[in-house]
Amino acid sequence: MNNPSPGDILEMVRKKPPGITFNLPHDIFPTTQEIDKILDSLSPDCIHPSLAVAHSHIPPAAAFAGSSRTPQTFDKRGFSTYARIIDALLQVFAEDRQIARHNIWALRHFQAFELYAQDFISIPSAKSEVFAAEAIHASLEIMVSRVEQVTTYILTSSADEGWREAALTSALENRPSTSSGTLTSFLADTIQRSRTLDSPRENRILRNILQHIFRDVEKDEADRWMQLARKVEAVAPETSMAITWAVTNFSPEPPRLDRYRNELAASVLGITPAKANVEGLLTLRKLCASAPNPDSDVVFLPQPRAVNITKACQQWITSDEDVDEEVVSAITALFYHLAPILQDIPGAHWDLAFDILENNLEESSLADDTSLVTLARTLRLITLIQDLCLTNKSLRAEWEERNMSILKMVRDLATVSIDHLEPSIPRSTCRGLLLSIVQDLPPSLINETTFSKMCHLVTDPSVEVQKMAYRFLAIAARKRTEFLVIEAGVDTEGVVDIRISEDLLNILQRSPGIEDGGLESSNVFGYLLGWMLLFDLFRESVNLKVRSSYIEQLRNLDVVVAYFIPTILTLLHLDQGPHKAFKLDIWGVDEFYVDCYEAGSKFTLPILAAHLYYRALLTIPSLIHTWVTDCKDRQLSSGITNYTSQCFSPVIIRTELAHVKSPESSALLVDENFTIKVASSVNEVVASYSVDEHQLEIKLKIPTDWPLHKIEIKDLKRVGVDENRWRAWILAVQQIIWSHNGRIIDGLESSALWMAPCHESPAGLAKTGSMQDVYISGSTRVTLRVARCAAAPANGRVADLVALITSAAKIIESHYSQSSIPNVPSLDDLTPHPLDSAISPPELREAVQTLEGACAQLSATVARPSHTILNACLSFFLHSQVDAQPKIAYESDCLNVVLTFKIPDILQDRPTGMHVMEIGKRAGVDHAKIGRILRLLASKHIFREVDLDCFANNRLSFQLLSSSPLSNIVGHLTDEDIMTASAKLASYLADPEWGASQAPERSPWNKITGYQGPLFKYFEGATPQAAKKGIRFGIGMQGYNEATQATTVLTEFPWENFPPGTTVCDVGGGVGNIAMELLKAYPNLQLKLQDLPDRIHQAETQVWPAKYPTAISEKRIEFKAMDFLVDSPIKSCDVYYLKHILHNWPDKECIRILQGIRAVLKPSGRSDVRLDDFVLQHANRREDSASVEAPEPLLPNFGLGRIRQYNIDVGVMMVTLNSRERTLREVVDMANEAGLEFIKLWDVGELAVVEFKSF
């Protein structure tokens, strides 16, 4: 072999050729002294002072030794001689831990290698003696991780528990260790070397080592380490700070550390301005090194000390002496630790802080590497002050006087493009800090130009920065769109320049580097976010004029065909043929949550690409259609057409039809003679227009592969209308929907206006829009209504609701502050407040009503519709028990009424609204009474009252359509028997025989119905009516699972970590809905489905053959009937999974079920049991809680945020099944009795998975 590489040599050693033995590392590596000499010849400075952005202990630029860097030679990987040696050593040590234990001397070099690698990764453009530019592609991050693993092993491998204190004693006595080659001698040598050289490299190595070994330091030993720090302070201040920092952050608080902080604070007052640049700077740095973590309970300094420090700093800055910028930067860093101490103390120190912030921002720039450290410290301090202001009124008042100028400078810094600069983690960190502030800017600082100025932010090399940038730019895009819509609406002379931002177009016209194999690069993610922002500009509130201008610009630049489509084809593997295309079976394409993007995941980029293709099809279909039509590659064109029709067209058609049916769209059709009917089952929309008792109709037929093929528009009825005018109407609809990339509702809205002659302005229009005359067919005059910005809300008006809540809360706080007890009492305060019994003045009364209404509406606006509906029907179980209150189950009663008479189905045919007289006639019920019921529900945001006694569906009432699975569970929960049983709960509990029973056939429901078996037995067909209710319940559970997002267990629980062939037994899994999704998502699993015979027969013969036949043919699913109250499940599976099982049964039956599973577990804990169910939390905060607790001041169990599980516990489990939801302690106790040991609680959203193994 000619010129073998180090890797070749190591590979030969691994193969152990016969007749050759090696003594590693001595036989093939340089000697210890030779390696030490190479390291000592390298510069001890870090690669650049800006690294202090992330590592506060890096000294300021002036403290750098300024030593020259020795020219090095590098191999093809970009590794110097030193890097090659240490890389090879690291491979040997990682493979053979015995070699690592006996060669502790190498630990210093591993740490040095890690430092040089981390520095180079952070600033790859800087000059390094250890790595050349090519090394950035050499997986340095993996090597750094390997260093940490080897370091941890070596430092924890000693059997001598006293080695650390022995080294400390040697250091305190300033003598070498007598135990050569041990951890004691290594630590003593590391301290001595740092003490002697006091260089950045040796100090950083010492910090890293101390960080590893301080995890179990006791307070007495920590005090001795502080003694060492004080002892070396005069001769080696950097070493002293390294030890102090380690003690502060990784050990219990020792007394000597607290005294040291106070001594330093006291000494600051004695430092004159003339000494501020040297002695003052060093003292400030020492104080920062001794500052505790802000999240700890340790008090940094007493308030008087903190005030005195700020006074001394103010004297330095206001003196005639020239104070260095590094001193001001150090003051900024220290103020971050002082601010929480000073937050309650008004005074000049806050003026000083704000002055420093403004000065730092004026002098900083992302393009200036020398200012990055100061900028980062400034931004962190601004963020901290904003957080403190949330709970501190006095500080908030001072901040609000100065914050606008400071935040404006922050915003302006973020607008500066740095794309021309080399990537740098310090710079990217600063940009991330900027964005964390910018994304919460006051609305007044965001205008129509902000988007154009700042869209370059998505190209930052940091994925986290890209995410923050997108969140902010989505808001800025909304601002720009709103501005252009308004301007276009009043623009009669065509002077408004409606164009896509040049900066955004520059991003879209770049190559993301996919063709170079850069799929893992943040460049691709940033590029795709650019397209996400483009489609955000096409939000629903944008009018046709703005949309058409955008599309024309995209068409002229050919940016979609030249850049977007090739990128999407590559990411979805469509360019490799249909068999290689990315499978979208289990992924939704209509939504993508940017915050959930994971760099390096093989799924997230294709899923994002699929979402963008979906949005393109929805937003710019004509551009996509043109490309597909013009594509010369017939195989590619056919593959894309099939892929689109299978994975995207059904979603787009469903979205479009829902948009046509939505109340917001109905509000756009202002003419009462115009009606729309949607036939979702056949993908058709019929538009009707009434003229003098004649009806004109057109039908829009959506093809199955829409939008790759055009919507077919047919005329059904044409009476009394001129042929030319009729054809003009048809043509107008076609042109708007297709050529102008409008949505169906755009074409229908324009057609309604087209057909409606209007001789005078409609009432109220002058206030909300403008009129424009158009002449058609000679003398026929038609008035088009345009720019109706106020006709329909563009969104849920979340910001307005929040403003209402804030305003009302301030009014309420003001009234409380003026009372004799000037504070709003907490819910835990039992002392009567004067305002509790006082007559509220009108202002306070109105504010309380506003707060209640706005909070409820805000919740109904932002929550999933199914979530709101489910909680509304469950509220019965809370209210029905409040006997002292007259407001019992009216809302649930009303839901039961509208379901019984199918009111949502009746209103579906009239999206613009129906009068109660017609509703009553169609439903066969008194119209006045049904109107009152609808008004109650509309007041709770279910249905809309669109006019006097006229009601229409909204997005909540749509959930109650008879075709919706959720309406079935609502029907079950509001069933008269169940509601009556719940209302009788008090009398049931008072009955000594019934109330104390734990039997499933002795529930309140049994008591009022007289049925003598469990509810589920009743559902099996006790009567024909019972069988119908059972079917309703089964269908309803689909809606219930959707509303509670039961399938989160698929994504939140790490099923992918199980090895291939893992068997999961779904005990009581019904027909296997969850089991099916598990198999689809995780090819490593094999499923055993078990339930009662009827359910298993249905699953095996009907459900699985229809929905997932390949699982049967591939033998990944086994069906076996069982009764878990009698039988044990299939033996020796790896996982036994029970979803929503135990909460249906009392404790005795649950223990029997678990014992049956325990009997078939593999020996030695090699099987486990997973219980997927609600896990109730107590309403008091517990330090030992294994569940996720809500942040204060919320109740730890999230209060109303998780009230559903408590409603289910009482209103369903107790009332209908005499069973219960359980706390974790109760679940664990039952499992223990069955012979199972608790392992872990997995929080998977609303539910939890509790993991057990056998004892």
What does this protein look like?
- This protein is α/β, with parallel strands linked by helices.
- The chain is 53% helix and 8% strand.
- It has 54 helices and 18 strands.
- The chain has a seven-stranded mixed β-sheet, sandwiched between helices. A four-stranded antiparallel β-sheet has the order 1-2-3-4, with helices on one face. A three-stranded antiparallel β-sheet has the order 7-9-8.
- A hairpin with a 2-residue loop joins strand 2 and strand 3.
- Helix 7 runs parallel beside helix 8 and helix 37 packs across helix 53 (1203-1217).
- The radius of gyration is 36 Å and the shape is globular.
- Residues 756-795 and 876-888 have low confidence and may be disordered.
Number of helices: 54
Number of strands: 18
**Shape, per Cα inertia axes:** globular
Give the end-to-end Cα distance, rounded to a whole number of Å. 58 Å
Largest sheet: 7 strands, mixed
Structural class: alpha/beta
Low-confidence stretches: 756-795, 876-888
Q: Percentage of helical residues?
A: 40-55%
Radius of gyration: 36 Å
In terms of DSSP E residues, the strand content is 5-15%
Query: How much is the average pLDDT?
Result: 82
Strand order of the largest sheet: 12-11-10-13-14-18-17
Secondary structure elements and their pairing?
Blueprint: H1 6-15, H2 32-41, H3 81-95, H4 97-101, H5 107-122, H6 140-155, H7 163-172, H8 183-197, H9 200-213, H10 219-232, H11 237-250, H12 255-268, H13 276-289, H14 303-318, H15 325-342, H16 348-363, H17 372-389, H18 393-415, H19 425-438, H20 450-454, H21 463-490, H22 502-508, H23 522-536, H24 544-557, H25 559-571, H26 604-619, H27 621-630, H28 634-647, H29 649-661, H30 663-668, E1 674-679, E2 684-691, E3 694-701, E4 712-717, H31 723-739, H32 744-755, H33 765-768, E5 770-776, E6 780-786, H34 798-817, H35 834-837, H36 842-862, H37 865-879, H38 890-900, H39 903-908, E7 914-915, H40 916-923, H41 927-939, E8 944-947, E9 950-952, H42 965-973, H43 976-983, H44 985-990, H45 1004-1009, H46 1015-1019, H47 1024-1043, H48 1048-1052, E10 1062-1067, H49 1073-1081, E11 1085-1091, H50 1093-1107, H51 1109-1113, E12 1117-1121, E13 1135-1139, H52 1147-1158, E14 1168-1173, E15 1175-1176, H53 1203-1217, E16 1222-1223, H54 1224-1233, E17 1236-1244, E18 1247-1254
Parallel strand pairs: 10-11, 10-13, 11-12, 13-14, 15-16
Antiparallel strand pairs: 1-2, 2-3, 3-4, 5-6, 7-9, 8-9, 14-18, 17-18
